[in-house]
Amino acid sequence: MAGVTPALLFCHPSMEALADEIAKRCSHQPHMIPLTTPVTPIGSTLPENSPPNFTDPSTSKVYRKLQQPVQFCKTIKWDRFKDNWPNLFIDKVKSYAGRDVIFVGSFHSQDVVFEQLSILYTMPRYLVRSFKFILPYFPTSTMERVDTEGQVATAKVLATMLSSIPTTTRGPAQIVMFDIHALQERFYFTDQVIPRLESAIPLLLREILTLPDEMKSKITIAFPDEGATKRFGSMFGDSPIGSPDDGTIKKYPIVTCTKVRDGDKRIVTVKEGNPKGRHVIIVDDLVQTGGTLINCAKALLDQDAASVSAYVTHAVFPQESWKAFTDKSKIDMKFFWITDSIPHATEIANHKPFKLLSLCDAISDALLGYDLVSYN
């Protein structure tokens, strides 16, 4: 059988380590893999308890699950002119016609946005078959609404800019984002692109299962506000995780915190749930300076939580504000899990209590679950 043509994976230099791991993960078991479920013609049924049947009786054709491998390409030259504007060159660009292209990017700084937009607007024009832009962190997502006339919803502005990515020969480009601040932001993009909103929460769920038994058996999930509870609560309280075969299915108790006004101050307090004696993990989509998380942790400890940890997908931490969490005199957190959606997270994770959960598996699973799989 002829070899499978790989998808081509490119990246911004700041995401090179992550992109390399994604390419290795997605190419671990390429080519033909037997189907795990029978292929049955429409309108027919298989006898009960029958063995897997990979053959379509109407054509005698044997179907197989086809996994497309991924080739990591470093053929984009990222340079600067003397005036500091980008000087970019895509080597062998005409050879990418008819190929499936993936680009892993990062908008962690305004300084790197324009150069990546230049690549995003250019590559589809060379007749690539499909184009996926993996942007783990959508940086303007917290400015998604206008409360007072005159405010600018920059989330809408950035979505409009990304919506200008040209259409490919197979249709609209896809923009893959993780734990965007507000789900309704998907409607800020035009119909020229397809926003795909994924979540990194499964990485935390998997991590919880590796904790010591005495801690794992007393996990409670806390949210810093009602918005986070609505957004992520069902992933912990209503949806089981683990396997029914090994008894690891869990539904975690939920605690919701809230901010209340005390004179001129706003303090964090526990609104619902009981953290007493529990190992509590505070979950949110992102952290900026960390003030809300610290106050939330203190409120939980004041109500006799056995320990407090935290998880955020996006460790923004401007001006090295992450250092507040390394000072146990301010707050004593057992763990603080973060992902590498923003490049500096890798360095932050070198300091306790931080621990890195790489997005490699989450991104690879998203691609392997649909994009890199076909049937032949």
Question: What does it look like?
Answer:
By secondary structure, the chain is of the alpha/beta class. It is built from 9 helices and 20 strands. It has helices spanning 16-26, 113-122, 154-162, 201-208, 213-216, 226-232, 291-302, 345-348, 360-371, and strands spanning 7-11, 31-33, 55-56, 61-62, 65-67, 70-72, 76-80, 86-90, 100-104, 130-134, 173-178, 193-198, 219-223, 254-262, 265-272, 279-287, 307-315, 336-338, 354-356, 373-375. A 7-stranded mixed sheet has the order 15-14-13-16-17-18-19, with helices on both faces. Strands 6-1-9-10-11-12 form a 6-stranded parallel sheet, with helices on one face. It has a 3-stranded antiparallel sheet with strand order 2-5-20. β14 and β15 (265-272) form a beta hairpin. The chain is globular. The chain starts with 6 loop residues before the first strand and ends with a strand. Mean pLDDT is 87; it is low at 30-54.
Write the layout of secondary structure elements.
Layout: E1 7-11, H1 16-26, E2 31-33, E3 55-56, E4 61-62, E5 65-67, E6 70-72, E7 76-80, E8 86-90, E9 100-104, H2 113-122, E10 130-134, H3 154-162, E11 173-178, E12 193-198, H4 201-208, H5 213-216, E13 219-223, H6 226-232, E14 254-262, E15 265-272, E16 279-287, H7 291-302, E17 307-315, E18 336-338, H8 345-348, E19 354-356, H9 360-371, E20 373-375
Parallel strand pairs: 1-6, 1-9, 9-10, 10-11, 11-12, 13-14, 13-16, 16-17, 17-18, 18-19
Antiparallel strand pairs: 2-5, 3-4, 5-20, 7-8, 14-15
Helix pairs in contact: 1-9
